[in-house]
Amino acid sequence: MAVLYRTNAQSRAMEEALRGSDIPYRLIGGFRFYERKEIKDILAFVRIIINPADSVSLRRIINVPPRGIGKTSLSKVEKFSEEKKILLMEGLRQVSHSRVVTSGAKNKILSFLEIIDGLRSFYEDATLVDFFQEVVGRTGYATMLKNEDTRESRDRMDTLNELYTAIQQSEEKGETLQQFLDTTALVSDADSIDDSRGVLQMMTLHTCKGLEYDSVYIVGLEDGLLPHASSMSDPEEYEEERRLCYVGITRAKKQLCVSNARMRRIYGSTFNYPPSQFLMAIPSDVITNKSRMEVPSYQRSMSTGYEAHQIPSPSSASENQDISYAVGTKVLHPKFGAGIIIKRDGSEDDLKVDVFFKKAYGKKRIAINHAKLIII
């Protein structure tokens, strides 16, 4: 049996449910959620912000993203701190005003300390979700992933967005930030324990090519996930998403289960994602509906004009613009997250909208014909 999903970020909720039910699992072709580099990096930033004595976390992130504080400079600071019998963080503060390291290194260290001190001040009055988003932004981590502009870097950003959901759920349970950090450490330790009972296989659709299982579950068949938001305005990318979906479906030898969520929390907020257009490609006579609703929402609410075996191509941005992009419409952008249209200008062929996103991004002007917006 295997569980398949479009993005690595989707594994977190399933991992937590499986651990809660004591069901062993293995991620194929990837790391478990809290073992991923981007998660470890951001959690290390958070740990050093609330606990300057955590030198292990400090060593991990002092030059992440690369900021010109190399191994040679760090070694000098470590030696200085040992001789003075002070914490590494205090050593950084003292050498920034001494001749232990070069003037160039001192300037880089001062810049790093300014970031940490600024985030510590921000933490005092912010919600945990806003604090984590500020850490990702102010440290330069988001910019680093944006500049890489690869499928892997976009996937890593999706994983960080899922971290916001995790911390928000923790906050709703009444946990403190320290309790959340302690829980993530315990999860990582538990994940390293071997289990001889057999394991559930979990992987992305990109990883499952060439593999087959008696039973396959594909989760997250929603517009914005499968097909992914980044493909919705690009026909070629959309076709690749369709091929990915086909690959996942054909991994099942005996039984296939596909699912979509009516509500999904992403970017720290809850949205109603429409069911995937790909669901309409599955002939109704081979589907056994397990929904609590009498009729699946995608069959009931989507009047498409397509036969059951056809998958519609993505509609162009200019279709139904007067209805779809009215002021007040909530939209989802693959980079900026959720936002609200506050102004619109231009003709039907050159429509531009002003969208107000969360505080990390603020107001953005977006050309509809070139944007990858999903109406939510």
Notes on the protein architecture:
The chain is an alpha/beta fold and 376 residues long. The protein has 3 domains: 2-24 and 195-285, P-loop containing nucleotide triphosphate hydrolases (Rossmann fold); 34-178, PCRA, domain 4, CATH 1.10.486.10; 329-375. It contains 13 helices and 12 strands. The chain has helices spanning 11-20, 37-50, 55-61, 71-84, 88-95, 103-125, 128-138, 141-148, 151-172, 177-191, 235-249, 297-301, 321-324, and strands at 2-5, 25-27, 200-204, 213-218, 252-258, 264-266, 269-271, 330-333, 337-345, 352-357, 363-367, 374-375. Helix 2 crosses helix 3 (55-61) and helix 2 crosses helix 6 (103-125). It starts with a strand and ends with a strand. The model is unreliable at 189-196 and 294-323 (pLDDT under 50).
Number of helices: 13
Helix content, binned percent: 40-55%
Secondary-structure element order, N to C = EHEHHHHHHHHHEEHEEEHHEEEEE
Which overall shape is indicated by the principal axes computed on the Cα atoms?
Answer: globular
Say which CATH homologous superfamily of the largest domain is assigned.
PCRA, domain 4
Nearest-angstrom radius of gyration?
A: 24 Å
The mean pLDDT is 80
CATH class of the largest domain: Mainly Alpha
- Indicate the CATH topology of the largest domain: PCRA, domain 4
| Major sheet characteristics | 5 strands, parallel
Q: Beta-sheet strand percentage? A: 15-25%
Alpha-carbon distance between the termini? 33 Å
Unreliable segments of 5+ consecutive residues: 189-196, 294-323
Structural class by SSE content: alpha/beta
